[in-house]
Amino acid sequence: MDPKISQNSKNFGARKTKFSVSFDVEGADVAWCPGCGDFPILKTLKTALAELEIDQNQLVLASGIGQAGKLPHYLKSNTYNSLHGRALPPATAIKSVNRKLTVIVTSGDGDMYGEGGNHFMHTIRRNPDITAIVHNNMVYGLTKGQASPTTQQEFKTPLQIEGVSLEPFNPLAIAIGLDASFVARTFAGDMNHMKEVFKKAITHKGFSLVDVFQPCVTYNKINTYKWFRDNVYNLDDSYDPHDRVEAFKKAIEFHKFPLGVLYINPNKNPYEDILTVYREDDSPLFKREVDMQRLEKLVDSKRKI
Predict the structure, then answer these.
(1) How do the domains of the chain map onto residue ranges?
(2) pTM to 2 decimal places
(3) What is the mean pLDDT of each run of 10 residues along the chain (305 residues)?
(4) Measuring CA to CA, how many Å separate 119 from each of 40, 115, 116, 212?
(5) Homologous superfamily of 38-303 in CATH?
(6) Cα–Cα distances in Å, from 200 out to 25, 208, 262, 268?
């Protein structure tokens, strides 16, 4: 357990920022274990949103199932709690019908890369203007410590009693291989670094993946705060995130994991900007009047095909 991380789960992140907007949920009954890496993620996200002056009424947090999926309940915003691994499709739809919204998905390594792996890949292809923050603790924390897609080899669990034999899933390599428009990694034990990465991801135009190394203090006694500090390094200012080949090389490093923005492709159009419904009308879909005659004509025209 990291002494720098507050042990008071109910009060962690409740301090007001210097900005006028507070994203705190007063009296929230936080269900995470004391020392959990989710606490600094929650606090840092609140700070990043406040510094960016994001309008709470224009903010939507979508989540699936798992400890990471509880985060929207502890942050003042509009929320959408989806099924296990299914947060990305509704988040894409929400952004598509109202492009003025800031849409953030909060998910875990099992939720995003396991149950939601198919949606993960195809959301990268679509490139909606949403941010996916993945709490990667390399274990299933909600269901009592089974191996997740990112669990390291030889890690022993109550189910994998002889140790995990499979090579861990590499989300950054997959994302860069699919030409995601923004790919980054940070660490819950470095809140300043995490905040800057969050801000860059949220303001990026297109799909942003932020993989966060987030220690599970209860079910993962191997990949601890100290282990991560000993096995990561920060990319320096000389690194160019626009070089896809070099970004892929960084993504497959495993002796020490690089932290920072690994890859940016600023030339991809967001999914919602290429939808035909916005070619002649920029207004959000929910504000539009339904022209029933035009709709009936459209349906009839498709029946003749």
Answers:
(1) 38-303
(2) 0.89
(3) 44 48 87 95 97 95 94 95 94 96 96 94 98 95 87 86 90 98 98 98 98 96 95 97 98 95 97 92 89 90 79
(4) 27, 9, 5, 19
(5) Thiamin diphosphate (ThDP)-binding fold, Pyr/PP domains (3.40.50.970)
(6) 25, 9, 12, 16
